[in-house]
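hey so u asked for the seq, here:
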Amino acid sequence: MKPDKIGLAQLKQTSAGAAKGADWKLVGVIGGIILILGVIAAAMVVIPMINSGRREAKRVECAANLRMIFAASQIYAQLNKDMMPPNAEAFASYISSNDTWICPECGNVSGGGAGPAASSYIYVGGSLGKYVHRIHNASKVVLAYEPLSNHGGTGFNVVYLDGHAQWIAAERAEVVMREIEAQSSKLSSTH
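ran it, structure tokens below
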């Protein structure tokens, strides 16, 4: 049969076959698009969860830093007849790593240099009185804390005089900061 004399029936059959093939190609393209959208949606759910886990890990590491600062201050007190360290520099030699002084979330420091001079944390022990044993309710007395800005304004860690560290959510930050200021002025005036 000559190419120019293709019969009508053969033409219809060829067109129908091509249409069926085109339908399957369209289904494949649509299926691929749906699969890609599913992967993107899953990534949009998983990535924030991973980031949230990282932020939580940095909060925990930050609290561990504050507990190290507490431990070093207690070593100082034990070696100095129960006297409260007047400032962070007084017990800095009991902390082996300068990284302890830096919040892992922000990496910012308040001063130049290394150690407590470049700390992300604020030590208030020197304003609590001269002797550790004279401070009552140690579980409610803040020894050191960090600025709210260290964790992007979501909250901050504090370490208490009994050694426990706690995360303070941003909603409670203002109240806790007033308590810290009140405790420092109250305790330093009574000792």
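The chain has two helices and four strands. The beta strands are 122-123, 142-145, 155-160, 165-169.
lmk if thats what u needed
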